[in-house]
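Could someone model acetyl coenzyme *A with this protein?
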Amino acid sequence: MGSGKTRKMAIRSKILSTGSYLPEKVLTNADLEKMVDTSDEWIVQRTGIKQRHIAAEGQYTSDLAIAAAKQALERSGLDGGDIDAVIVATATPDKTFPAVAVKVQAAIGASRGPAFDVEAACSGFIYALGIADNFIKAGQVKRIMLIGAEKISAAVDWTDRTTCVLFADGAGAVILEATEEEEGVISTHLHADGKYSEILNTTGGPSTTGTIGHIYMEGREGFKHAVTFLSEVVQETLEHNDIKPEELDWLIPHQANMRIIESTAKKLNMGMDRVVTTVDHHGNTSAASIPLALDEAVTDGRVKRGQLLLLEALGGGLTWGSALVRF
Ligand code: ACO
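Reply:
Sure, complex below.
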């Protein structure tokens, strides 16, 4: 499904500000060597990951989300009361219900509009961005607090070396605001193919085992499909907007694996100096990885106002998608 070009776009969703939060605890590859039969060399060579942040016991996804939201709010100069809706992309909510988003809503004092979670695994932030953008374009709300937040460590089997070296916790937030200027989200492209659900999933859930289960992944299959579907959706985005790869300032991909990121960049003929990578120090934070990467690059001055950004992700489902954004 594509959105954006076929209609006249009077209203667009501008990214007003960003924020993020990473838990204090850092887990290095050396720490993992003491937990499972692995090595720093294997992890770095296959994934690019050197360290990751892990939430403390008693620290929940909503805590991470609220911290990121408060930072985005502070940087925007707005009050919580100025926010019309809260959307949180997460696969690891505090509880089955209520949504993490209502906790954020209460914590920032945004009490007027809808608050809900979006679950599309690692593609969650792109899906939520597509939904938020359409809410704004429809004129239904003016400002949305949009967050990707995960305590994915809670779903990791810490004795399984094939997955425990990959995943990590964190949260990233953006505030979207309706604008009539030529900036903001230009188009979003969302896809899923449920016949690949066995490749990447959890072994439990509320209506099956009554537990959250553990992450199960067929690594090689996931890798193969990630490379194929991401290059397709990137191509779709370029063609839909009639732009060439050289017009892009930054590729901000989901941070699952350095080799997948490099392969997408190569297909776009983009040097790694135009790709935002955080996988080495964040690991795979699922729905949080893109807003975390965006916030890091905005904060350190790499991503500047007016630049053209291509965001893309693939995750369990399989789900995948992209967004073209004039920052
Ligand atoms: N340390 C040491 N050895 C390991 C480890 C580890 N942590 N994990 C697996 N191995 C071993 C395996 O047991 C296997 O050994 P064997 O040959 O004796 O059987 C060997 O290393 C090779 O395993 P593979 O799984 O084939 O290794 P591969 O090169 O495929 O790398 C990886 C694994 C990193 C998981 C890779 O497949 C991958 O990144 N896949 C994509 C996952 C992904 O990012 N999906 C998209 C995003 S979805 C999301 O973000 C939720």
